[in-house]
Write a sequence for this structure.
């Protein structure tokens, strides 16, 4: 079983993977969160099976049932509780919409990446072809928007619709910089903010909106979610360059093959350039990928990237509002650093672990 994924078809929140064992375990095992996620799960299942076309239902349900940590809806539930709101029907539906958008975006992402495997299983594009995968992904994004407007509220629907816009823009920006060795840190940051951090931000913000939190608390939780989302994507990018395919449940080094100059690569480059240049080429072989990965291991990429993430974790913590519920406060406070430490353990660099 892969270290970084949930492979079970039926979701088992009690089963920790290595990624969860530190950073996410507290969040995903909290009894109130587990209870809320059960409800979210049946809402997501209903929504993903709600097309008039059985083929779409089968495809969308397959994606939903293939696993996934449910990290974003867990953040929605935690934020609601942090702001004094017991998750009600609206919060549960908002969390389900967030997960449906995430899952739909993965379907599109796999299509763009020509990925054959996710969560240890075949992707929709590899199984059904690009056309069907494209429209099933569309269905999932659109269905989330419809549920948000009919069953949550207009403000929440607006947040989610704006997030899908950002997601598309972030993914688009990535394509404009493929195979561009001059991609800048700012450009990579803008892309990952749109494609990943925006949905983490929205996961927290929709709960704050449902909780009728003050504008300041909304902004604080949104900033927390965004910073954590950035950490999450940057470490996913780092793992692509440092972990094995078996650990990931998706092919390692895929970003290199796709020509993505991810942030860890950009951050490492200044040091790396003194020894020679990395230049990603179209159609590089597995051997060439392995050679680049080996060269990268000689750089300070891991250290620099972890340092960068620690800065974001500090910002996430500083953004958190006053939280009355001590347990939820502890979970949200420890999540960014604990997650960074879990990744450090996964890539076997214990010396980089920090408790602060
Ligand atoms: C994968 O996200 C996509 C990225 C933003 C890196 P997750 O790792 O949260 O995906 P699942 O839902 O748990 O498979
Ligand atoms: C995350 O980017 C994709 C989305 C936010 C939709 P990646 O391309 O890095 O995600 P993985 O590595 O395929 O899971
Ligand atoms: Mg991808
Ligand atoms: Mg990735």
């Amino acid at each position: 079983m892969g270290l970084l994924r949930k492979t079970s078809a039926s979701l088992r929140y009690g089963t920790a993977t290595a990624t969860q064992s530190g950073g996410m375990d507290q969040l995903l095992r909290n009894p109130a969160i587990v209870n809320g996620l059960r409800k979210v799960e049946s809402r997501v299942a209903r929504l993903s099976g709600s097309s008039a076309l059985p083929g779409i239902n089968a495809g969308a349900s397959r994606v939903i049932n293939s696993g996934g940590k449910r990290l974003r809806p867990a953040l929605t539930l935690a934020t609601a509780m942090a702001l004094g709101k017991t998750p009600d029907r609206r919060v549960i539906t908002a969390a389900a919409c967030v997960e449906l958008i995430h899952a739909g975006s993965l379907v599109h992402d796999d299509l763009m990446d020509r990925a054959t495997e996710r969560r240890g299983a075949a992707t929709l594009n590899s199984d059904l072809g690009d056309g069907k995968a494209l429209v099933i992904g569309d269905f999932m994004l659109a269905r989330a928007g419809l549920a948000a407007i009919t069953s949550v509220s207009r403000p929440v629907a607006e947040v989610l619709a704006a997030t899908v816009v950002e997601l598309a823009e972030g993914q688009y920006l990535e394509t404009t910089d493929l195979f561009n060795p001059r991609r800048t840190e700012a450009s990579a940051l803008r892309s990952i903010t749109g494609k990943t951090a925006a949905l983490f931000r929205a996961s927290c913000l929709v709960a704050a909106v449902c909780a009728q939190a003050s504008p300041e608390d909304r902004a604080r939780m949104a900033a927390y979610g965004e910073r954590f989302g950035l950490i999450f994507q940057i470490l996913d990018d780092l793992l692509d360059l440092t972990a094995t395919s078996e650990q990931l449940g998706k092919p390692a080094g895929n970003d290199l093959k796709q020509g993505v100059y991810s942030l860890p690569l950009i951050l490492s480059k200044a040091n790396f350039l003194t020894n020679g240049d990395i230049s990603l080429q179209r159609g590089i072989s597995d051997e060439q990928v392995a050679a680049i990965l080996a060269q990268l291991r000689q750089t300070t990429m891991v250290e620099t990237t972890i340092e960068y993430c620690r800065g974001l974790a500090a910002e996430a913590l500083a953004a958190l509002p006053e939280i009355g519920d001590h347990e939820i406060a502890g979970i949200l406070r420890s999540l960014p650093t604990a997650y960074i430490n879990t990744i450090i353990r996964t890539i076997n660099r214990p010396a980089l672990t920090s408790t602060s």
Notes: Residues 1-19 have pLDDT under 50 and may be disordered.
